[in-house]
Structures are given as structure tokens and as C-alpha cells.
Amino acid sequence: MTNIYNNILQSKAKKEKLLAILLDPDKIDLKNLAVLVEKINHSPATHIFIGGSLVETDILDDLIIKIKQNCSLPIILFPGNPSQISNKADGILFLTLISGRNPDFLIEHQVKAAPILKQTHLEIISTGYILIESGTETAVERVSKTIPLDRNNPDLVIATAQAGEMLGNKLIYLEAGSGANQTVPTEMIQLVALNIGIPIIVGGGIVDLQGIQKAYIAGADMVVIGTAFEKNLNFFLNLKSNIVN
Ligand code: 1GP
């Protein structure tokens, strides 16, 4: 049996940093999947996240089966809504958008997803998802109809992360939004890391090695890279030996 969360905790204890590649099934051409998987295998990635706003389950199943044929990294669903569940993955970030006040993303989608998840073997990882203002409106903001937290008000972000931890979230995800103009501020990551005990994921708008390292040094346990790899499959080519651990 897989235990993704325990592995994340162990990495945190050993100060080994983790890296997730986010794949959006709608943007993947199955004909080029072999190349994509080869690039992932030659990257420093430790996890694969799969998610997007329009994904259908049948595409998901097929994609995950094909990735697993040639890649042994844990595949974790990062769903935008309850229809994006596939039993072929290893786990799921069971997200609550705790920065927002939209009941659909706080509890409604989760209630719809629970009976479906009960029928799967997926490892369910309760995750407090915190959207941080990043300059311009991002897709997650649009889809969730929530207002991100002020990037200049770390106190509210800290309190939100603490509330997530107290509610039983196992991870806190600080999200600037896919393709964001501005990443989550490093001081904010630092302050959150000082004030909670659970692992922190950071993503959104990180496009280079410096951005990855800054997030790690500030206290991110895992960094998520989506757009930069999507745009350039060679993104990780020269990064592997340079990533700090
Ligand atoms: C989005 O945090 C992830 O949910 C990744 O963002 O696409 O900007 O890398 P990018």
C-alpha cells in the first residue's frame, strides 16, 4: 500500500525538498506522451500532480495508465471539481479553499466527492488550499469565484493556515495561481512555515531555478511547477543537479 503522506512527512523531517510536476490533461497530446514521461523521468520531480479545470474522467484514466507504464512517481489528483476523480491515481489532494468564502469550494464539492472516493483506493490527503493575490486574476480565482488573500497581509494568511491545521488539514498549499505574474512572497512562506507544523506546498508562477530555491529556503516542503514545464519540456534539463536539498 502506498503512503504518500508519510513519505512527505519523512522528507520534511529530513529536510529533503520535494518537487511536483503539474500536468493538465487537457493540454497533453497523448501522441507525445512518451517524450513527456521521459522528460519527467530525467527531472528532479518527486511527484506528479494531475488536474485542470475541464478534465473528464475517461481522459484521466487513460492518461494515468499510460504514464504509469513508464514512470514510478506517485500520481496525485489535484482536482478542480468532483468529476475529476480517477481510481488509477495513487492519491488525491482533498482540497478545501480556505482562503475563500464560497461554500461550494469549502464543503459542497467535498460532500459530492466523498461517496465516489469511498469506492476508490486513493490515499486521501486533506489539504488547506490558500489562494494568494498575484497581480492579475487567475483561472482558479475565476472558477472558484473567490477573492485571494492580500499578498501584503501575512497575518491573515498565517491565521488561515493555522485554522486549516487546527481543522485537521494535513497539508497547506500556498497558491498564486497557474501562470501567475507574481509568486507567493518568500516572506509569507517563511512566516507560515514558522507558524504551522504541517508540510507546505507552494506553487503558481514559479518559472526558474531561483524561484524554486527561494521557495525551498523560505520553508516550502514541496514546490509545484506547471506552466514552465508545459511551455518547455526541457525546463528541468539543467536543473537536476542544481536543486538544493
Ligand atoms: C497551479 O501551483 C500550480 O496550481 C502551478 O502553477 O502553472 O504557474 O507553475 P504554474
Question: What would you give as the CATH superfamily?
Answer: FMN-linked oxidoreductases
Global shape: globular
What is the CATH topology assignment? TIM Barrel
User: What is the N-to-C succession of helices and strands?
Assistant: HEHEHEEHEHHEHEHEH
Number of domains: 1
Number of strands: 8
CATH secondary-structure class: Alpha Beta
Give the percentage of residues in beta strands.
15-25%
Mind describing the biggest β-sheet? Answer: 8 strands, parallel, barrel
CATH architecture grouping: Alpha-Beta Barrel
Output the radius of gyration: 17 Å
Can you give the mean pLDDT? 94
Low-pLDDT parts are: none
Strand order of the largest sheet: 1-2-3-4-5-6-7-8
Number of helices: 9
**Roughly what percent helix?**
25-40%
Q: Helices and strands: which structural class?
A: alpha/beta
- What is the straight-line distance between the termini? 27 Å
Bound molecules: SN-glycerol-1-phosphate
GO molecular function: imidazoleglycerol-phosphate synthase activity; magnesium ion binding; phosphoglycerol geranylgeranyltransferase activity
Protein name: Geranylgeranylglyceryl phosphate synthase
Organism: Flavobacterium cellulosilyticum
GO biological process, one term: glycerophospholipid biosynthetic process
